[in-house]
Amino acid sequence: MPTANLTREKIELNDGLDSIVVVQAISQIPGGRTLDVSGLAANVESVKSGHVLVIDTKTKAVSPLGITEGVYDTLPTGKKYYGVLKASVLKRDPRAAIITAGQINVAASPAPVTDAIKAGLPLIQWLYE
Fold it and tell me: N or C: which end of the chain has fewer CB within 10 A?
């Protein structure tokens, strides 16, 4: 299971889109989750707000859905859609607030949202495509 260091150094992580990607958060995972970021490329330093998250149906580990060449990957076997990352997180400190119902500004999201993602997260309204 992923872990996080609870002592935090002060770092500003802001690309200017966090404040506009989440239009409205109606429901969230209480207490959030620590993301499994082991599948991210070595050169990736953060996961951006609005990123689609998936959960492993066996281990219950939550991870960012992969993005290849600017497009979300298809849902891997053994995983299901879980929610959307509320605010950007550093790879080295992946404690995440996760939205399960609300409105997301797709124009500010990390990648275009597919029909499969929309079907998998029916309580999310995808705006401004």
Answer: N
